[in-house]
C-alpha cells in the first residue's frame, strides 16, 4: 500500500448492487453460503406457507430450490396462492409455482417433482442433494417420521410447518451439534476492554496518557479516552483498597463517584464528555472476563473434550480455545475498541494496543490448533481466517443441539422426555402458546386416522366438512395429550387451573377446526417470513436460530418460542 | 353448524366463489373468539369487497399482494418512488427491466393481472399531495412508509379528520416498519387510541456525530465519510448539488474520505460504507418485510370482517414489536394514549430545557430530541414571535433572538407553539427550566 497513488476504484458489482441491503447484514460469506444451498420443499394442503417461504429465499438468492408436490391446481388455489394463474388450472401445482417463483430472481435455479412423497422417500439417498428440507403439514406421521430419520442421518436441517386459519407453527430439527460463531451480538453490549486485568502494554499506555493529569490543559484533560481514565482511577482506587479493584455493586458505585468527582467543571463547557462516558461505562465495563454459560457449555461438550481426526474444525478450535481459557482465565481478546471522545492519534494508538494483544492471543490459539491437527494426523489445515473469526467472537459463540419433532404416530402418545416438566409447567403460563401447539399435535393425530383417500398418503383436515363433530374429536385428542403430559411430568394441576387449561385448549382446537384446513394468505405470508428467516440462519450459520419450536397466534398477534 | 353449505353470494356466485373456498371457511363460520353478535356470511363478504383500502410505502408489494388475497377488491396505492436495483432483493413485484419505472404503477398492474377481479388504483406521488377529501373515501389505511416524517404527516391528517358526529370519518391507520431483522406493526384508531405522535419517542433518531469531531478529531471511518459529506463537499464543490444516487459523487466522497482516513491512520473506509453513511442506508430483507406487512394486513382483514379480535380495539393491545436476529421474539402490548400528545392530546407537552441555552442551541436540539424531532421549527409564545423560518422578512426580523438565552426570551413554565413545514399542525410545548 502506498500513500502516493490513489487506490483504483472498485465500484460495486451488479450483484453487490442488487443484494446491497442484505449484504449489510450477513456479508459476502453469508451470501456465498446461500448461493451454494439447495432447499427442498415437500408441499401439501393449500401449500401457501411453503411457497411464501421460498419466495423469501429466492429473492435474497439461494442457489437452488426444488418443490415436491403432486397436487393439481384448483380454483381454490387461485384465491390463496400468489404464485399461480388461471391458465394453470388443472396443471401440476409444483411445476407452475416453481416457474413463477423463478421469475423473481434469474440467479436462482428452480426444480419440481410431482411424484407422491411416499414413493419419493422410498428411494435410497434421495435427500442427499439438499442443504435443508421444508415439510408442510398435513403429512402422514409415518412419512414424516421416515423423512426425519433420513434427514437426520445426513445431518440435513429439517423444518416441519403448520399453517391453519389464524394460527401457525414450525419446529426445526437441526443437526445434533449446530455451533454458531458469527452470532452478531449487539455491538453496544459487547465491548470487552479488560480494564480489571490490563496487560503490561495497556497499563503503561494508560500511565503515559495520564501523567500529570491534574496539570493538563482543559483541552488535553477533556480528551483522555475514557478507557484510560478508568484504568487511571482503578490504580488510584487500589491504593486505598489493599490493591483490590472494586469487588461488588456498592464498591462500583463508590468508584463511579470517585470518577465523577475527577471531572472538571471549571472549563468553558462546565463538564467533560470523556468523563461522562467513563462514568456511564463503570457498571458494564468492570466485570471479570469470565466465559458465559453458553461458552462453557461448548467447552464441556463431549465433541470438544474428545477430538478425533474427523472432528469438525469448530471443535478443534473450541478445544484450543478451552486450553487458552484454562491457562489465562480469560478468552482471547476480541481487539475492537468502541468509539470514545479522544484525540485521533491517542485513539488510534489505543486501538493498536488492543489489536496487538488480540493478534498475540490469536497466534497462541492458532499454535494450539496446529499442534492439535498434528497430533490428530489431520491433513487439511483449518483456515486461519476461521480461527481468527472464532477468536474475535469467542465470548458469543453458541451451540444448539438439534431435537426431534413430535410425530403423532397412531397408537403412540406424544412423549416429552426431558422437557416434560417444562412443558407441563407451561400449561398454566398465560404467556405460553403451548396449548396451541398441543392443538396442532391433536390435529396431526386426527388427520393420521382420517385419510382423504387411499392414494399417496393424502390426509384430511379436521373441519373440512363437519366442523362440530371434528372439533369434538380433536378436542378429545388434545385433552388426552394434556393429561398424558401432566402424568409424564409427574405433576398435578389443581382446579380451577385444570379446567381453564382444558377449555383454553378447546378454544384453540375450535379455531383450528373452523378453518377446515384452510390457509389464510396473511398468516401463510407471515409464517413464510419467519421460516425463511430461520432457513437463512441455518444455511449461513449466522445469528441465533429458533430452538426449536415457534408458534404464532394471529388472533392476538403473539408468538412463543419453546424448546421441546 | 349442521352443514357446510356454500351460500349463494350476489357478488360472483358459484364458480367464482370456489376460488375463495378457504377464505369462506373463516367468513362463513363463527369461532370461539368472534363476538356473539357477529353474523358470518354474505354481509361479511360484501363488506370486504366494498371496503376501499389504501396501501403505501416500501412494504407496498407485500401489502398489495396480501390485501388482494384477503378478499379486498378496491385497493389504492400511493408511492412516490421509482424502482432501484437495490429494491429487487425484496420488492418481489419488480424485475430488472422495471428499474426506473414508478413503483405504484408497476405493482398495481402486476397484482391486477395475477389476482383476477381486484381493482388497484395507483398514484405515483407523495401522500402529502392528497387532501382530506381524498383520504375520506377509504375504510382504512395500511402504511409501510420508510420515513418518520411521512408517518407523522398521515397520522396528524387522520386525527384531524375525525368528526365526532360522523363515524365514517374515523379511519383506522395500520402502520408497519422494518429495519434489518427487526420491525413493528401497530394499529391506530385516530383520537381513540395511542397515535404515532404518542409513540414518537420509541423511534429516536440516531445521534449525530458532533461537528468538532468530524472537523478536528476523527476516530472512525464513518467520521471521515461524514467529513467528506458535510464539510469537504461544501468547501470544494459548493456549486454542484450532491446527488446520493450519482456514482461519480459517491466516488468523490469515498476518495476524499479515504484520503482523510489515511492521514489519521484510520482504516476501514470502503465504497459500500460511504454509500451507507451518505444515503443513511437501512438494511432490509424480504423475510422481515413479509412478516411485518402480513401482520398489518392480518389486522386490516380482522378489522374489515370482525372474523376475530384485532389490535387497536380501545383498552387492548395495539402494538406488536418484532425481533428476529436472536431466535424469534415478539412483544405485543397496549401503548397508552398520551394526554399531552401534540396531535391527539390537548395538553402542552413538558420539555425540559437549559435556560442558559441560546434560542439557536434550542432550535438545533429540537431536531434530535426524541420527543420533538422537528428540523425547521418556527417558534412563538402567546405574546411574541421568537423565530420564524420564513418568510424572509420575518426571518430577518426574528433572527437577533437566535443568540439570546432562553431565560431572556421566555419564563420558566411558559408555553410555546412550534410549527414546522413538514407538518400541518402546531406543537404545544411547556418549557421547564432545568435546575
SSE layout:
The complex is a heterodimer of chains A (564) and B (435).
Chain A: H1 14-18, H2 20-35, E1 38-42, H3 48-58, E2 64-68, H4 75-78, H5 93-102, E3 109-113, H6 117-121, E4 132-136, H7 141-153, E5 158-164, E6 167-173, E7 178-180, H8 200-209, H9 218-221, H10 226-239, H11 249-262, H12 273-285, H13 293-300, H14 302-305, H15 313-328, H16 344-376, H17 384-392, E8 398-400, H18 420-426, H19 434-448, H20 467-488, H21 497-515, H22 521-540, E9 549-553, E10 558-562
Parallel strand pairs in A: 1-2, 1-4, 2-3, 4-5
Antiparallel strand pairs in A: 5-6, 6-9, 7-8, 9-10
Chain B: H1 15-18, H2 21-28, H3 42-50, E1 52-57, H4 60-68, E2 74-78, H5 103-114, E3 119-123, H6 132-136, E4 140-144, H7 148-161, E5 173-179, E6 182-188, H8 211-215, H9 221-236, H10 247-263, H11 271-278, H12 286-305, E7 319-323, E8 329-333, E9 349-353, H13 359-368, E10 378-381, E11 385-387, H14 392-398, H15 406-409, E12 415-419, E13 426-433
Parallel strand pairs in B: 1-2, 1-4, 2-3, 4-5, 9-13
Antiparallel strand pairs in B: 5-6, 6-7, 7-8, 10-11, 10-12, 12-13
GO molecular function (chain B): ATP binding; NEDD8 activating enzyme activity
Keywords (chain B): ATP-binding, Ligase, Nucleotide-binding, Ubl conjugation pathway
Domain E2 binding (chain B): 351-434
Amino acid at each position: 500500500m502506498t500513500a502516493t497513488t490513489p487506490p483504483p476504484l472498485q465500484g460495486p458489482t451488479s450483484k453487490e448492487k442488487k443484494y446491497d441491503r442484505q449484504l449489510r447484514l450477513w456479508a459476502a460469506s453469508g451470501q456465498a453460503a446461500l448461493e451454494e444451498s439447495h432447499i427442498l420443499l415437500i408441499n401439501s394442503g393449500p401449500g401457501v406457507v411453503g411457497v411464501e417461504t421460498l419466495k423469501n429465499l429466492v429473492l435474497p438468492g439461494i442457489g437452488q430450490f426444488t418443490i415436491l408436490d403432486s397436487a393439481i391446481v384448483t380454483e381454490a388455489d387461485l384465491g390463496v396462492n400468489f404464485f399461480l394463474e388461471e391458465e394453470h388450472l388443472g396443471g401440476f401445482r409444483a411445476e407452475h409455482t416453481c416457474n413463477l417463483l423463478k421469475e423473481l430472481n434469474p440467479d436462482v435455479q428452480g426444480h419440481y417433482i410431482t411424484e407422491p412423497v411416499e414413493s419419493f422417500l422410498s428411494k435410497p439417498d434421495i435427500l442427499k442433494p439438499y442443504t435443508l428440507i421444508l415439510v408442510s403439514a398435513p403429512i402422514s406421521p409415518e412419512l414424516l417420521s421416515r423423512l426425519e430419520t433420513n434427514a437426520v442421518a445426513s445431518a440435513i436441517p429439517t423444518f416441519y410447518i403448520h399453517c391453519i386459519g389464524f394460527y401457525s407453527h414450525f419446529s426445526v430439527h437441526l443437526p445434533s451439534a449446530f455451533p454458531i460463531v458469527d452470532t452478531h451480538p449487539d455491538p453496544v453490549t459487547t465491548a470487552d476492554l479488560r480494564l480489571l486485568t490490563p496487560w503490561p502494554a495497556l497499563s503503561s499506555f494508560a500511565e503515559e496518557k495520564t501523567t500529570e493529569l491534574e496539570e493538563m490543559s482543559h483541552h488535553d484533560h477533556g480528551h483522555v479516552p475514557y478507557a484510560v481514565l478508568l484504568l487511571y482511577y482503578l490504580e488510584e482506587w487500589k491504593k486505598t483498597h489493599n490493591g483490590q479493584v472494586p469487588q461488588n455493586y456498592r464498591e462500583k458505585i463508590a468508584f463511579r463517584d470517585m470518577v465523577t468527582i475527577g471531572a472538571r467543571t471549571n472549563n468553558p463547557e462546565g463538564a467533560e464528555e470523556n468523563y461522562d462516558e467513563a462514568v456511564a461505562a463503570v457498571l458494564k465495563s468492570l466485570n471479570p472476563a469470565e466465559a458465559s454459560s453458553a461458552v462453557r457449555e461448548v467447552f464441556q461438550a463431549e465433541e470438544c473434550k474428545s477430538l478425533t481426526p474427523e472432528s469438525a474444525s469448530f471443535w478443534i478450535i473450541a478445544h484450543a480455545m478451552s486450553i487458552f481459557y484454562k491457562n489465562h482465565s480469560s478468552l482471547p481478546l476480541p481487539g475492537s475498541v468502541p468509539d470514545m471522545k479522544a484525540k485521533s492519534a491517542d485513539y488510534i494508538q489505543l486501538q493498536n494496543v488492543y489489536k496487538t494483544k488480540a493478534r498475540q492471543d490469536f497466534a497462541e490459539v492458532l499454535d494450539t490448533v496446529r499442534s492439535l491437527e498434528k497430533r490428530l494426523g489431520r491433513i487439511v489445515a483449518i483456515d486461519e481466517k476461521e480461527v481468527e473469526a472464532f477468536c474475535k467472537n469467542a465470548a458469543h459463540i453458541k451451540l444448539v443441539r438439534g431435537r426431534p419433532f413430535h410425530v403423532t404416530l397412531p397408537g403412540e402418545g406424544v412423549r416429552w422426555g426431558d422437557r416434560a416438566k417444562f412443558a407441563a409447567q407451561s400449561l398454566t403460563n398465560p404467556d405460553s402458546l403451548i396449548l396451541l401447539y398441543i392443538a396442532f399435535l391433536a390435529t396431526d393425530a386426527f388427520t393420521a386416522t382420517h385419510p382423504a383417500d387411499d392414494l399417496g398418503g393424502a390426509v384430511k383436515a379436521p373441519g373440512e366438512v363437519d366442523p362440530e363433530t371434528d372439533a369434538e374429536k380433536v378436542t378429545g385428542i388434545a385433552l388426552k395429550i394434556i393429561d398424558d403430559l401432566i402424568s409424564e411430568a409427574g405433576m398435578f394441576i389443581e382446579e380451577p387451573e385444570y379446567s381453564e387449561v382444558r377449555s383454553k385448549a378447546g378454544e384453540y382446537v375450535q379455531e383450528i377446526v373452523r378453518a377446515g384446513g384452510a390457509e389464510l394468505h396473511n398468516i401463510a405470508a407471515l409464517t413464510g417470513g419467519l421460516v425463511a428467516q430461520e432457513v437463512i440462519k441455518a444455511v449461513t450459520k449466522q445469528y441465533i436460530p429458533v430452538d426449536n419450536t415457534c408458534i404464532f397466534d394471529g388472533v392476538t398477534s403473539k408468538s412463543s418460542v419453546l424448546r421441546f | 353448524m349442521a352443514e357446510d353449505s356454500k351460500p349463494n353470494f350476489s357478488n360472483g356466485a358459484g364458480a367464482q366463489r370456489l376460488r375463495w373456498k378457504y377464505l369462506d371457511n373463516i367468513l362463513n363460520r363463527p369461532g370461539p373468539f368472534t363476538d356473539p353478535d357477529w353474523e358470518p356470511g354474505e354481509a361479511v363478504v360484501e363488506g370486504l369487497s366494498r371496503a376501499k383500502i389504501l396501501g403505501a410505502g416500501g412494504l407496498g408489494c407485500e401489502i398489495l399482494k396480501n390485501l388482494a388475497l384477503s378478499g379486498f377488491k378496491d385497493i389504492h396505492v400511493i408511492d412516490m418512488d421509482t424502482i432501484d436495483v437495490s429494491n429487487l432483493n425484496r420488492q418481489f413485484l419488480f424485475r430488472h427491466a422495471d428499474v426506473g419505472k414508478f413503483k405504484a404503477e408497476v405493482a398495481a398492474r402486476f397484482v391486477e393481472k395475477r389476482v383476477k377481479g381486484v381493482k388497484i388504483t395507483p398514484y405515483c406521488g407523495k401522500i402529502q399531495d392528497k387532501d382530506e377529501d381524498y383520504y375520506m373515501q377509504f375504510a382504512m389505511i395500511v402504511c409501510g412508509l420508510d420515513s418518520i416524517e411521512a408517518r407523522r404527516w398521515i397520522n396528524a391528517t387522520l386525527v384531524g379528520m375525525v368528526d365526532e358526529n360522523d363515524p365514517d370519518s374515523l379511519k383506522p391507520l395500520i402502520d408497519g416498519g422494518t429495519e434489518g431483522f427487526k420491525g413493528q406493526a401497530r394499529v391506530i384508531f385516530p383520537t381513540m387510541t395511542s397515535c404515532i405522535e404518542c409513540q414518537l419517542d420509541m423511534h429516536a433518531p440516531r445521534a449525530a456525530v458532533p461537528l468538532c469531531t468530524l472537523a478536528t478529531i476523527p476516530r472512525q471511518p464513518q467520521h471521515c465519510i461524514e467529513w467528506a459529506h458535510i464539510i469537504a463537499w461544501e468547501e470544494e464543490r459548493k456549486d454542484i448539488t450532491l446527488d446520493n444516487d450519482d456514482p461519480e459523487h459517491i466516488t468523490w466522497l469515498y476518495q476524499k474520505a479515504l484520503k482523510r482516513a489515511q492521514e489519521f491512520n484510520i482504516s476501514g473506509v470502503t465504497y459500500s460504507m460511504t454509500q451507507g453513511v451518505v444515503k443513511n442506508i437501512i438494511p432490509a430483507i424480504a423475510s422481515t418485510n413479509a412478516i411485518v406487512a402480513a401482520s398489518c394486513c392480518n389486522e386490516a382483514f380482522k378489522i374489515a370482517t370482525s372474523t376475530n379480535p384485532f389490535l387497536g380495539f380501545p383498552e387492548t393491545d395495539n402494538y406488536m414489536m418484532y425481533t428476529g436476529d436472536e431466535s424469534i421474539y415478539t412483544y405485543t402490548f397496549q401503548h397508552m394514549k398520551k394526554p399531552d400528545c401534540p396531535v391527539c392530546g390537548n395538553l402542552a407537552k413538558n420539555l425540559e430545557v437549559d435556560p442558559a441555552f441560546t434560542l439557536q442551541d434550542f432550535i438545533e436540539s429540537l431536531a434530535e430530541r426524541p420527543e420533538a424531532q422537528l428540523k425547521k421549527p418556527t417558534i412563538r409564545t402567546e405574546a411574541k414571535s421568537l423565530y420564524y423560518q420564513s418568510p424572509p422578512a420575518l426571518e430577518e426580523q426574528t433572527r437577533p433572538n437566535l443568540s439570546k438565552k432562553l431565560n431572556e426570551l421566555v419564563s420558566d413554565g411558559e408555553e410555546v407553539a412550534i410549527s414546522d413545514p413538514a407538518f400541518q399542525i402546531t406543537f404545544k410545548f411547556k418549557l421547564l427550566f432545568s435546575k
